[in-house]
Design brief:
Layout lengths: L1 H24 L4 E4 L3 E8 L10 H22 L3 H21 L5 E7 L7 H25 L1
Antiparallel strand pairs: 1-2, 2-3
Helix pairs in contact: 1-3, 2-3, 3-4
Length: about 140
């Protein structure tokens, strides 16, 4: 479980630090690959992919999802891949929650194509889910042998 704890702390701290830096310094779009990708500050009051839900429902769903992930992590994270996946998801989720607390918005800043602008915490959550899927595939493959 130590690896999960470390992954959660690193993803949380780095997500929060980058959000603070972006809030204080990014005042115009910085292109990385022309108009396709760059850094652009945006504030998101919604949940994943900027989906808007009624405020009370949104808060309940965010907290319920985090508690469910934490419960599943404690019960099932056995391998390093699973611990890393759960840690990234938990740290990213906590980062987005902490970023949202002062003003009700999450600071997003990475823009790629027409995909909604996202942040490091979102990336940690996505990579964490990917690691859990890889872990499931590896377990399934091992059990088939």
């Amino acid at each position: 479980m130590m690896f999960m704890f470390v992954a959660a702390i690193v993803s949380f701290v780095s997500s929060m630090a980058l959000a603070v830096v972006v809030d204080r310094t990014l005042d115009h779009r910085i292109p990385v690959f022309g108009s396709f990708a760059g850094f652009e500050r945006a504030y998101n009051s919604g949940i994943a992919f900027s989906i808007m839900l009624p405020h009370g429902l949104q808060t309940v769903l965010i907290i319920a999802a985090l508690l469910l992930v934490m419960f599943l992590a404690v019960r099932s994270a056995r391998t390093t891949v699973q611990q890393a996946g759960f840690g990234l998801i938990i740290g990213g989720a906590l980062g987005n929650i902490a970023d949202r607390l002062p003003d009700g918005f999450v600071t997003d800043y990475m823009q790629v194509g027409t995909f909604p602008v996202f942040n490091l915490a979102d990336s940690c959550i996505t990579v964490g889910v990917g690691l859990l899927l890889i872990g499931m595939l590896l377990d399934w493959r091992q059990k088939r042998k």
